[in-house]
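Appendix C reproduces, verbatim, an entry submitted by the partner laboratory led by Prof. M.T., so that reviewers can inspect both the input and the predicted structure.
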Amino acid sequence: MTTLAPVRIQPGGGTRRAIFLSLGIALVLGVLTIGLEVSRSAPRPVVPIGQPTRGTYLARVPSYATVSRDGRTLTVVPVRGPCDEPVRQRLLAVEFRDRVYLTVLVHGKMYTEAQLRQMICATFQVWTGPLPSITLRAPLGNRAVVQGLTGRPVPLYGGAQVATPTVLPNGCAPGPIQPGGVVVMNGLPYFAGSHPGLEWSCDVTVPFPRRNPNEPASQLRFGQWQGLVPSLGLPIEERTTVHGHPAIVIVEHLGAVNIIPIRSISWHEDDQTFVISSTSGLTLSVAHSKAVLSAADLVRIADGLRVSSARTPVGN
C-alpha cells in the first residue's frame, strides 16, 4: 500500500531547480485541467488517529509503469487509500533529453503512518476508474523514467516487449496497454505480486447480443508478465504447445448445466508468462458457452503471437 502522505521536494543545483520549476508548471496545468486547489507540499501531517486531513498533494508512483506499443504512453498503478480506497489522481510528467520525471497528483484524504498501521479493513474496494496515464511529447526511447519526488528509477515493462498478435477473431481491435495486476491463469484472479505485467483486451464479434451494456458478449484478454508466474492448478482441459513451449488450456465449468464462462491458454516463453483468456458477459445459457472461444481458436491465436526478445530500455 502506498502511504498517502505528502513528500517535500528538495531541489538543489541548476538541473534540480529546472526540474522543480517544470514540475510546478505541470502541476498548475494539471490543477487547471481537473479543477483542484493545490496546497504547498509539506511534511507528514500530525493529526489524531481516525482524523485524516484532506487536500491536494504530490505522491510517488506506487510501483512500475507500462509503456505503450509506440513508446508514447505511460500508465501506472493508481495510488490507493486504506482498504484500497479510490482517490482522484492525475499522472504528471516532466520530460528532459535523457529522462522523464513522473509524479502523481492526488486529491483526497492524507493519512499518517500511525493511522495506516491501526486501520482494520472489513472490505476492499475495487478500482473501476481509468488508470493514471500520460502521453509523452516524444517516444520514450532510451530515456530513463524516474520518480519526480525522489529521483529514483521507476521500473518499466512494455514497449518493444509487448507481444504482437497476427491472428485475431472478428471485431478484435487491440486496446490500450494497462498494468497487469492480476493473472487470469485458471479462471480465478491470481495476484502477480512483484511481477511487472501488462494487459490489453478487445471485444469479439459473436452472433449473440450483449445482455449487459457494460459487458461485451465475448471478450479476449491478453496478458504477459515478467518472469515465471505459476498456475493455480485448476483442472486442465488440454495440454499443448505454443511456439514449441509447453502450454495448458484450462476451462471453467459452472454447475451441472456445464456452462463455460471462461477458457484460457497460458505458457512461459523468453522469461515471460503469457495468458490469453476468452470470457463471456452473457447470462448462464448455451449461448454463454458458445461466446467463449474454443481451445483450437486460442491455440491458433497464441501461435500467431509474435514475442519479442527485446527489453524495455530502462527500468527492468
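DSSP finds four helices and 19 strands in the chain. Additional entries are available on request from the coordinating office.
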